[in-house]
Sequence to fold (100 residues):
Amino acid sequence: MWSGLGYYSRARRLHEGAQKVVNEFSGEMPRTADEMQKTLPGVGRYTARAIASIAFGEVIFTISFAAVFITHNRTSIQGACSHRRVATLFDRNAEWLTGT
Fold:
């Protein structure tokens, strides 16, 4: 039923990341979104930023791809531009607005 949706792959990569935290980082999570994204398998941009913001108080903007998708499809953002490009545009504007 769940085959082909990527859930098993994601679960394997998150498990690898958890093992890495235990075995290589002595059970201590990296404390910044940048460190998490670079060092932990299965942790992407959104997840790393959400964890760093909530758990460690890092002042960083993040937006889910669901919000990007809705905004991209419901606003005047036109053209053959990918959701990733729209997310990057949002990130840059948010960083400019918040000074982060």
Observations:
- Residues 1-59 form a domain with the Endonuclease III; domain 1 fold (CATH 1.10.340.30).
- The chain has two domains: 1-59, 61-100.
